[in-house]
C-alpha cells in the first residue's frame, strides 16, 4: 500500500504522528515528513491516522496496475 | 453525463499527478470506454515533492513515492514512450515508437522538466545533476550518501533551497549561487526573501547572491565552478536548480497556443489554438497549463503546484465528459508549501501579484509569522512560516478581495506586527536563476507572447 499526504491541506495537527509514529514525523514545528511506502505491519495504524486526520489530507491506496498490455 | 460523452476514446498525455487524477476522475464520472495514458518515464505515476525532502534526507527511497490511487482508472498505460506530435485535425497523437494514437478527446498533462545547464559539455561532467524525476533523486541521494566535501546548488528557488536544507541537515557543506538578490525572491518578493536568506545563513549555507555561475570546471568529474564575481567554488557535486521548462515542444506544429509559457486554455481547461479560438476536444491540466484567473485580473497563470495539478485535472476530466451547461470553471486559489531549514512555509494566493506586504501576525525573530500581500489596496496573497493554521483565514480574504492592509485584529485580535505595509519588491523573473513557480503570463492566449517578451529566462547568463 502507498500513501500520499496533501500538504497544501495539512495544517500540522499531527494526529497521524501520534497514531503511526513509524510512518509520520514532524520535521520542526509543523512540517510533516512521511514514508510513502507503508511498511509491513503498519497498515492498520496508517488507516487509523488517515481516518483521524482533522483535514482529511491522507490518501491510502494501491498504486495503479500499469502492466504493459 | 448526457449524450454519448461517456463513450469514445480519451487519450491523456502525461502520466504524473495530473494525468493520474484526471484518469481516476473520468472513471468516477462514469466514462466507460477506451482510456489511454501516455508517459515518457518508465515508472507508474509517482509523487515529486518528497524527492527533495524525505528522499534527500535518506528517509525514503527514490522509488518509494509511487502514488496511491483513489480507484484503479482501468487505463491502457503506455509508459516509457514520449509523445512527439499532435495532429488536431486528424485527431491523433504521435508517439516516439512510431505509434499514432487516435482520440476523440485529448488531455495534455505533460508538465515540466528541469532546466538543464546551458553548456552541454559542462552539463555532462560527472557530478553535475538536476532534480525533477525519481531517477534524478536516486542519483543525487546516492551522491549525498557518499559524503561529498561540498555541494554547489545553482539557483535559490524552492527546489534549490530544499536541496541546500537537506545537505546541511546531513552535515554536508553547501554553496547556493543565485543571480537575484536573495533566495525565493521570485515567488515571495524581495522583502520576504531577506528572511529566507537569513535562514540559509543561520544554517551554515554559503549563500552567494547577485552572482552568476560562469563555468563548471572539471576533467570528466566536476571539481568546481567559476562565479561572475571572480571567485571560485570547489565542490564535488553540482545541482542545477534553475527552474523548469514546460514540455510543449511536441505541440510546436499542432496549431495550438502552446509555447514557452505553457499551453493556454479557458477557465474550463479547454485549449486555445494559436488564433485564440477555443477547441472543444483538447484539454490541459497541471504545470504545463496557463489559465485565466478572475482573482488576478484574468491574467493567465501557470502554476507549478501540487494542489493545482490535482484540482485542475479534476475540472478538466469533469468537463471532458460533461455537456456545456454542466461544465465547471477552474477557480482554485493557488496554494503551495515548502519545508526547509526547520520551518514550514505555506503560501495562498499569488505573492508575486502584489505591490506591498505587511507582517500581520507572529514574529520575525521567532520565525513564526504571517506575511500578507496586497495589490492596489486589496489582499492578493498570504505566506505563513510555521503558522499554517491561519492560511484558510487569509484565503477567505483573498477570495473576498478584502482591503489591504487588513485591519488590526483581523485574524487573532492582535494589532498588525508591522504597522505599515512596505513594498513587496517582486523582481522581474528574467533577473533570476530560479523559476518563480507561479508565473503571471499576461492576458493573451496567443503564443506570440514569447516574441513580445524577448530574452525570457536566460539561465547562467
From TrEMBL, chain A:
Free-text function comment from the UniProt entry: Ferredoxins are iron-sulfur proteins that transfer electrons in a wide variety of metabolic reactions.
Entry keywords, A to Z: 3Fe-4S, Electron transport, Iron, Iron-sulfur, Metal-binding, Transport
UniProt cross-references to PANTHER family, sorted A to Z: FERREDOXIN (PTHR36923:SF3)
Cofactor(s) required for function per UniProt: [3Fe-4S] cluster
Record-annotated membrane-spanning stretches: none
Record SUPFAM superfamilies: 4Fe-4S ferredoxins
Protein name: Ferredoxin
Organism: Sphaerisporangium flaviroseum
Pfam families named among the record's database cross-references: Fer4_15
Organism domain of life: Bacteria
TrEMBL record, chain B:
Keywords: FAD, Flavoprotein, Oxidoreductase
Record flagged with keyword Flavoprotein: yes
Keyword Transferase carried by entry: no
SUPFAM superfamilies in the cross-refs: FAD/NAD(P)-binding domain, FAD/NAD-linked reductases, dimerisation (C-terminal) domain
Domain FAD/NAD(P)-binding: residue ranges: 9-313
Needed co-factor(s): FAD
InterPro entries per UniProt: FAD-oxidoreductase/Apoptosis (IPR050446), FAD/NAD-bd_sf (IPR036188), FAD/NAD-binding_dom (IPR023753), FAD/NAD-linked_Rdtase_dimer_sf (IPR016156), Reductase_C (IPR028202)
Domain Reductase C-terminal: 336-406
Matches recorded under Gene3D superfamilies: 3.30.390.30, FAD/NAD(P)-binding domain
PANTHER family the UniProt entry points to: APOPTOSIS-INDUCING FACTOR 1 (PTHR43557), RIESKE DOMAIN-CONTAINING PROTEIN-RELATED (PTHR43557:SF2)
Protein name per Swiss-Prot or TrEMBL: FAD-dependent oxidoreductase
